[in-house]
Every structure is written in C-alpha cells, then in structure tokens.
Design a protein that fits this description.
- This protein has a domain of 158 residues: P-loop containing nucleotide triphosphate hydrolases (Rossmann fold).
- 34% of the residues lie in helices and 26% in strands.
- The protein contains seven helices and ten strands.
- The strands form two sheets. It has a six-stranded mixed sheet. It has a four-stranded antiparallel sheet with strand order 2-1-4-5, with helices on one face.
- A hairpin with a 6-residue loop joins strand 1 and strand 2.
- It is globular, with a radius of gyration of 17 Å.
C-alpha cells in the first residue's frame, strides 16, 4: 500500500538524537525514518536503551532532535518556537506518561480536565465525556479522590483518560499497561485499539510486553538507535 502525505499522521526523516559531548556522547537515535499512517495503532518495541522512548518523545514534540525533521499533521515541529509548540501539542497530541504525572493536589477528575482548563474550556458535554471515559476504564467511582488515594493501576487509568479527553489526533503512550493487572491491561489495550479503528486516532505505544504489542496494527522494533 502506498502511503501519501494525506494519509500520514506523522513522519520522521533522518531523525538523530545525541546526548552529551565528546567521549560522553550517547547516540540515542541514528537517522531514523518512520511513517505513522493516520488511524493506525503502532507499537514500538526494543530492549532498554534502544531509543524507543526517545523516538516517541521526539515524535510527540516533547524532545528536540539533534538532526532531522518531525512532521505532525503537516506541520514541521522544528519550525515552531516553544510557545507555538506547546499550543500545537495541546491541540493535536495526547501523552500517557509512564510516571503518570498527575498533580497531587488535584482530584482525579480535576487532573483529567486539566488539559481543557488550559485550552478551550470545559462545558457539560466535556464533563460527561470525562465520566464516560472514566467508566469505560473502571475509575468512575474514584474521580473525587486525589492521586495518593489511588492505586498505581488507578493512577495509570486516570492518566489515560486525561490523554484521551481532548480527543487528540495522535495519542502517545509510554508503557500504558505497566502497572495494570492482566484483565485491566486487556481492557485498556482494547480501548486504544478501538480509538484507532473507530475514532480515527493515531495511537503510538512504547512497550516491552509482547502480548500488549499484539493489539497493535504494526510493530516497530528498535535496536541501538535504529529501526531493526
């Protein structure tokens, strides 16, 4: 199948990321080329240090490449200043962090709605969408609780709802099932798969779990900063 620019959610060309200088240099990415078709679920796998998380962070605009280009929704991320990049991510990108990144002083519902507080605002339809997503992922009864009152798995699911609430064109997830039991993991992965197939979202997941990767339409394997 030929992939055209119209069907691409994101692409990377000659993507290179170098940390440090001199003998301390670490080449996290070495000239990666990658296309992410719109509405597909892609899993990125590889051993620790292979560059998979760095690749995802560059694709999401959370890290800047040393060389090469990242294009998302037709926009060259390297051409945006910090303020424009922040606005672009808010409008087009959702991210599920491995460490959850929930604000401890806010309730689960407040954490979920935070991206919209910073953006287009909140109305009754948004609140209803938040509750529906929370119910789908099994945390509807925990929305009034703060992160310290939630288990690791519950915090993970709240973080996933927060990433989905803005209905992003691209959703990036870093080990989204790492703190979940097998039943809940299956529910989360099935929801991510349906987000791609039924809602047309482009989902990119970093995982070590081969079972989790089977839910994806496509698997990219990283090795020593390159696509194997």
């Amino acid at each position: 199948m030929t992939t055209t620019l119209d069907t691409l959610a994101a692409s990377a060309r000659d993507l290179t990321k170098i940390y440090g200088r001199g003998e301390a240099q670490v080449h996290a990415l070495r000239g990666v080329d990658l296309d992410l078709p719109r509405g597909r679920f892609t899993a990125i796998m590889g051993p620790s240090g292979s560059g998979k998380s760095t690749l995802m962070h560059c694709l999401a605009g959370l890290d800047q490449a040393s060389r090469g280009t990242v294009t998302v929704a037709g926009t060259d991320l390297g051409a945006l200043d910090d303020d424009a990049l922040t606005i672009f991510r808010r409008r087009h990108v959702g991210f599920v962090f491995q460490a959850f990144n929930l604000l401890p002083m806010l309730t689960a519902l407040q954490n979920i709605l935070l991206p919209l507080e910073l953006g287009d605002g909140i109305d009754d339809a948004v609140r209803e969408r938040a509750r529906t997503l929370a119910d789908t992922l099994g945390v509807a009864d925990r929305l009034a609780h703060r992160p310290a009152e939630l288990s690791g798995g519950q915090q993970q699911r709240v973080a996933i709802v927060r990433a989905l609430i803005t209905q992003p064109a691209l959703l990036f997830a870093d080990e989204p099932t790492g703190n979940l039991d097998s039943t809940t993991s299956a529910e989360v992965l099935d929801h991510l798969r349906r987000s791609a197939r039924e809602l047309g979202q482009t989902v990119v997941m970093v995982t070590h779990d081969h079972d989790a990767a089977t839910y994806a339409d496509h698997v990219v394997t990283m090795q020593d900063g390159r696509i194997a």
